[in-house]
Amino acid sequence: MSETPASASSEAGIAKVIFNEEEIRRAISRIAHEIVERNSGARDLTLLGLRTRGGPLARRLAARISDLEGEEVPVAEIDVSDYRDDLPDRAARASTRGAPAPLPVEIADRVVVLVDDVLFTGRTTRAALEAVLDRGRPRRIQLAVLVDRGHRELPVRADYVGKNLPTAMSERIAVRLTESDGVEADAVTLIRKPEAPGGEA
Fold this sequence. Notes:
The chain contains 5 helices and 9 strands. It is an alpha/beta fold.
């Protein structure tokens, strides 16, 4: 496995790896333990990964929980794009989307854990809640994220967090996973916008 440089410069900005593959693995293992502990086991759990990178993360969490508890945890991906409230054509999509596609896993009276890579404004999570409730009535819904970068616009808080990372609005978080991005190693990178000449951002 090739090493990922700690930082690199490009026209897009200065990138710094703040979460490497081993740290991501440990974070997923810790979150899996926390989910099992909070819910007294895995019997009633269903994991839903928010497309795109929430899906691989949910599958990894489900596998780790299964290792801990010795029972399979239902897991699936959910696409919440039709429920976003910050996209210009939301009203048009909402009027034409019809009945939601059923999920391949049971959620009624289950503890549903939503899984996403980055928690930012909270609007994706709000959309996910609407998408889930359109398909059934879980007993409880929880949220697990790999990175919480702050800047919430809605009253949303994650139940399980791999890493809290305070950021500036001008910064970007890039999550790259082997399953979804074709990379050799997982990494979470903080990208800072380069300063303009004279020191002005």
